[in-house]
Amino acid sequence: MAYGIRNINVLDLRPSTGIGVALPFDASGVFRTVYTTKDQLKYNLINFLLTNKRERFFNPNFGADIRSKLFEQITQFTADDLDTQIRSGIEQYFPNVVITDLFIGSEPDQNLITIQFSYTINNTGESDNVILSING
To answer: What's the rounded Cα separation, in Å, for the pair 90 and 97?
Structure first.
């Protein structure tokens, strides 16, 4: 009989130890503590999507550079370009994440880009999704 073995991160074995902060910074005292690696990875992905290239010191290529497309006319070419930027960036900076589904929607009249994607974490087999709306 085969067993499905699941890897557990060492940090997840101590549930009372915080490993990061949640986004957005809206709790009393500004920060909300994150206690699982799955949740922290999700917030790291959101941070990656919200970061522009050349915005981070000593790592100028980090970021999805989505805001650079915000004032362009949203066409299929722009959506395909964003898709490529997001996939290649996540592949480079988050090698343990596999994107299973990616949807980029837009509302040109409101200057709004919506990004929805589902992903799986390689070493644990867990999956989650991110929905992000950026309004110019």
So the answer is: 7
DSSP code of 123?
T
Domains in the chain, number: 1
Q: How many residues does the chain have?
A: 136
Q: Which residues on neighbouring strands pair with residue 107, listed in sequence order? A: 112
Q: 52-77: per-residue pLDDT in tens?
A: 999 989 999 999 988 887 777 777 78
Mean pLDDT of the chain: 86
Give me 8's structure tokens.
Answer: 């557990």
**Is 1 part of any domain?**
no
Please, which residues have CB within 8 angstroms of residue 35's CB and are 6 or more apart in sequence? 15, 16, 17, 18, 19
Q: SS3 helix, strand, coil % of the chain, rounded to 5?
A: 30, 25, 45
3 lies in a domain? no
Report, as ranges of residue numbers, the positions in the chain whose pLDDT lies below 70.
1-6, 10-12, 27, 136
For residue 105, being part of any structural domain is answered with yes
Beta bridge partners of 128: 119
